From TrEMBL:
Lineage, broadest ranks: Bacteria, Bacillati, Actinomycetota, Actinomycetes, Mycobacteriales
Domain of life per record: Bacteria
All residue ranges annotated as the Thiaminase-2/PQQC domain in the record: 25-221
Protein name: TenA family protein
Pathway: Cofactor biosynthesis; thiamine diphosphate biosynthesis
Residue stretches in coiled coil: none
Source species of the chain: Nocardia rhizosphaerae
Family matches, as SUPFAM superfamilies: Heme oxygenase-like
Leader sequence residues: none
Gene3D superfamilies, sorted: Heme oxygenase-like
A Pfam family assignment: TENA_THI-4
InterPro entries, per the entry: Haem_Oase-like_multi-hlx, Thiaminase-2/PQQC, Thiamine_Salvage_TenA
């Protein structure tokens, strides 16, 4: 890469993790339409729980922002996670296309760890480090969504009502791609104003959140049950 952007360095740093994400059986089956509806329902339930926590982290980040325009972006993203995306998840779960819930969903180990980390980072780290921590959810979802939209095109064309179609088209859509690009630009701006020590902390935060992205998808297909109470 030759652009000199700090986020390019973050992307290169996490290359092995991103390759592992691209190779996940969960995403392959989601793209070709062979993922079981039970597994997809579990994923959607966990993602709904995740979005609630993610919106809290983004709201805290908005309050720490260096200027009103930046604050507005993070606040709008929080509102979108809490309302628009969550509504899409609720619609999928209530559509009848997925197995009905038999009990109230509980955070998986990975989901709870991920949202707890993001909220803690937003609350206790600097604005720049917190922004780097929330970026993988924007950026990696945008990349995965774009690739899934291409691989799932035939599935969606054959069955527009396929339960995976709404999810794939949401994250592959141009408006979501643009939102991810804006989040990336804001992290670049934060890095430009950061010290070398802070930039190192930003890279660590981005890497840790990317690890959680990998684990989040993988544990939907390969769950890690909580120890019995």
């Amino acid at each position: 890469m030759t652009s000199g952007r700090f986020t390019d360095e973050l992307w290169d740093r996490t290359k092995a993790l991103r390759i592992a994400i691209d190779d996940l059986e969960f995403l392959r089956r989601l793209g070709d339409g062979t993922l079981s509806t039970e597994v997809f329902a579990t994923y959607i339930e966990q993602d709904s729980l995740y979005l609630t926590g993610y919106a809290k982290a983004l709201s805290i980040l908005a309050a720490k922002s260096p200027d009103p325009q930046t604050a507005a972006f993070w606040a709008n993203s929080a509102a979108n996670a809490a309302a628009v995306e969550s509504a899409m998840h609720a619609e999928l779960l209530a559509s009848g296309a997925l197995p009905p819930r038999t009990s109230a969903p509980e955070h998986s180990q990975t989901c709870l760890a991920y949202v707890s980390y993001l909220i803690a980072a937003a609350a206790t780290e600097s604005y720049a480090v917190a922004a780097a921590a929330v970026l993988p959810c924007f950026w990696i979802y945008a990349e995965v969504g774009r690739e899934l939209a291409a691989s799932a095109a035939q599935v969606v064309a054959a069955d527009p009502a396929h339960p995976y179609a709404r999810w794939v088209t949401t994250y592959g859509a141009e408006d979501f791609q643009q939102t991810a690009a804006t989040a990336r630009s804001l992290v670049d701006q934060a890095a430009d104003a950061a010290s070398e020590t802070e930039r190192t902390a930003m890279a660590t935060a981005f890497t840790l959140a990317t690890r959680y992205e990998l684990l989040f998808w993988d544990t939907a297909l390969h769950p890690q049950p909580w120890p019995a109470a």
